Amino acid sequence: MVDKRFFINNGPFNLAKIAEICDAKLMDETKGNIEVSDINTMLAAGNGEICFFYDKKSKEKAKEIKAAACITNQELADFVDKDVIVLISENPKLSFFKLNYAFYEEYKAEAKVSDKASIHKTAKIGNNCTIGDYAVIGENAELGDNCVIEPNVTIAKGCVIGSNCRIGANAALSYCIIGNGCYIYTGARIGADGFGFNTIQGQHKRIPQLGRVIIGNDVEIGANTCVDRGALDDTVIGNGVRVDNLAQIAHGDKIGDGCIIVAQVGIAGSSTLGKYVVVGGQVGVADHIHIEDFAQIAAQSGIMRNVESGAVVMGTPAVPIKDFMRQASFLQKSIKKS
Amino acid sequence: MVDKRFFINNGPFNLAKIAEICDAKLMDETKGNIEVSDINTMLAAGNGEICFFYDKKSKEKAKEIKAAACITNQELADFVDKDVIVLISENPKLSFFKLNYAFYEEYKAEAKVSDKASIHKTAKIGNNCTIGDYAVIGENAELGDNCVIEPNVTIAKGCVIGSNCRIGANAALSYCIIGNGCYIYTGARIGADGFGFNTIQGQHKRIPQLGRVIIGNDVEIGANTCVDRGALDDTVIGNGVRVDNLAQIAHGDKIGDGCIIVAQVGIAGSSTLGKYVVVGGQVGVADHIHIEDFAQIAAQSGIMRNVESGAVVMGTPAVPIKDFMRQASFLQKSIKKS
Amino acid sequence: MVDKRFFINNGPFNLAKIAEICDAKLMDETKGNIEVSDINTMLAAGNGEICFFYDKKSKEKAKEIKAAACITNQELADFVDKDVIVLISENPKLSFFKLNYAFYEEYKAEAKVSDKASIHKTAKIGNNCTIGDYAVIGENAELGDNCVIEPNVTIAKGCVIGSNCRIGANAALSYCIIGNGCYIYTGARIGADGFGFNTIQGQHKRIPQLGRVIIGNDVEIGANTCVDRGALDDTVIGNGVRVDNLAQIAHGDKIGDGCIIVAQVGIAGSSTLGKYVVVGGQVGVADHIHIEDFAQIAAQSGIMRNVESGAVVMGTPAVPIKDFMRQASFLQKSIKKS
């Protein structure tokens, strides 16, 4: 079912091997030699395919599974049709993840610097890099080893990119220092001028934006997301951060390690997120806000005050999520009464 | 008034011909030979130009019309100044649409594959295609006939694009299969990795995204909009769908035929829209939501539960639109009282 | 502290010169010969650096300043540590702005048209322009003097760009007329088709979009922002307007002089903003709305009705900002009571 046009299938694997890869137990050990050629979704999987079943809400549908084999947990195993070979995992979602990696690896072309790329003579390119057609690498820019720069990317003067990074097609980078193992998606804009100006006699005069964007290791920045550079202070994104598509991270923001920022979030300038903060889709955060470690902000919320460590909030202005739900319920009851 | 720099004017047409094109009736048939050279807006139209008047709210302004001729309906005709030649149409908006097409066609250069494009030797290019400068067409990619690929587009390995498609400048496509007659706007990102990962001991490990983006026929995807590919299941966009700019369609979403998705909408992963659903600007839809056929979601709403067929909802969490308006009114009254 | 990799430092300057640049008064005039080599933030500034202190909220931290010199105002001067040389300015923020400009100018390469750009033979290029690699300038397009077109930009047929403009990397322009001194950021999309169609028997038929985008002088359009062209009427952006990243300005909008539009705002078609309107982040404005001069719309608001001159509103639907805050407080009290 996975499209060979895009992905290379390393299978087939027999079920004994799959049990090993998935840290799972084959219920009927006589079936260890049966081969499975592909992974598929629970209801689409058929002959020779394996699927996963770990969502309790789907238990009614589990009897419709037509896959050769299914990885599930002890609690859900009985819901699976008797003709399906069952493997039991303590964490089927993690097993799914591991089997995916075993079956498929992303297509990776041999490292090659296109002769249609424009690489400034002063740029430093690490070993084993791939640079696509019409990519532009500016003066004094630096790439570590094993980087993949996709076509039509623009990397401006002086940018530093660590090893094992991937820069998606048509992205544009400037004024930034990026760590190792980062993936900047297609169309992301890193290092544009922050939105800062002084209004003097009706004219909005730009404040020089002299800061940089500093990105740690193992960071992903989603498609068409923008990370502006700071006015004087840097914009900093910690290690292991994941930013989804179309988000806005403004000048001087500091995003702590492990934060998750979902699509279309906007964080205004000079705000700070602690570690492992989760920010739901379309949330807005005002400027100069502090959100402490492990806080969770529900989608579409508007954050106008600091948020404490571990808090779970929702709404504009944001309140504890239970209060938000009670507000909604109160409002709906009030109009029914009146 | 339409700028000849950008559009080719096929006029002039005389009013008899215009009546025919517009399915309209010329009130004074002696005027059939009068020529009109251009279309313009109601109040900007002048000598030799024709305008349209179909918005009742503008009736006070209709006497200010200075156009040579005006297409309106029976009900509004009396508001037009007596010096203006009137044509009556049952559907003046549709007439406007038809006359626009008659007067103007978009400038279309002769089909030509730029020698500054990079086309992989294994790519298949249909007949009569235009491929712009610095466009990149990857290994085994396929284009149908009559496609226009604008400059600086990146089409990655294996993508399949049907006939009569247009891919706007600087767009990037990967892992996708696109039908016929589609228009992917400038800067759109199709097929980027879905935002999915497992967090293992504090590290967000990417789940391989093995699905594709499947787009039907006659679909438009707006400027800088992102459509991510699925984790295992495909992301599917049905026939005739219109997506505006800066929207986010996540991994595994299924968008039914004829849906309209306005700018800056975000739909989280694995959600389903039925047919002809209308989603207003900046709406957020949570993951695993089902929105049934013909439902309408007002702008900025947050959809956290399934929406029934034909429902019209608003707010976060969304309620029937009348309830939303009553909630707003209740709130405003409550603070005036207190 | 400012990274020499990206910016050229014009210093050092002695304090007498700095006082002159900043329109400030050196408290101890014997210190006029002391040299300062760089600007830094209040708490990061150290030996040989100057900082600014103008935020009353930071007064507790002012005694931690380790900079050689600090520019502040009369009221705050006493909070600064006695070892720091103090300069007094009536407007320290403006002084900061002026000193930034004196110390740093953006790196500007010598004007050069890349031989890897594709410039149509009919295009007119002004004097002293820089055109980056793989930029595409279409048929009959025109650039004024001193323009900088960054790499991978696409400027379509017939576009007119004034003097002293900068078009950021990977931006795409079509159907537009742009004034002098404008800065279109990386990835911005100017002139795409407005989102307009007629639905005829279940098919969404595109209405020809025959208008243009007209942009005044001294305008900035943020990264990945989209400005669509109009259906017949033009989309018009006045002089001195600032638009942040990822905003959507739809077909036929008229944005008055000096407006400020923050990130991720969406303005639907045919709406009008007067002069100096401020629109906060993630605001949505419905179609055909009029927002009058000097109105201010708080972040995330939804504007469904016209807004009067000078009004300050918030919420969806928007109400005066004080009412919005009282609504929020009323709701929170109501659930505590119940």
How does this structure look, described?
- 3 copies of one chain form a homotrimer.
- Chain A has 338 residues and is mostly beta strands.
- Chain A has 2 domains: 7-106, 3-Layer(aba) Sandwich (Udp-n-acetylmuramoylalanyl-d-glutamate--2,6- Diaminopimelate Ligase, Chain: A, domain 1), CATH 3.40.1390; 171-323, Hexapeptide repeat proteins (UDP N-Acetylglucosamine Acyltransferase, domain 1).
- The first copy, chain A, is 11% helix and 30% strand.
- The first copy, chain A, is built from 3 helices and 41 strands.
- In chain A, strands 12-15-18-21-26-29-32-35-38-40-41 form an 11-stranded mixed β-sheet.
- In chain A, a hairpin with a 2-residue loop joins strand 23 (197-200) and strand 24.
- The longest helix of chain A is centred in the C-terminal third of the chain and has 17 residues, at 321-337.
- The relative contact order of chain A is 0.06.
- The mean pLDDT of chain A is 95.
- Chains in contact: A-B, A-C, B-C.
- At the A-C interface, strand 23, strand 24 and helix 3 of A face helix 2 and helix 3 of C.
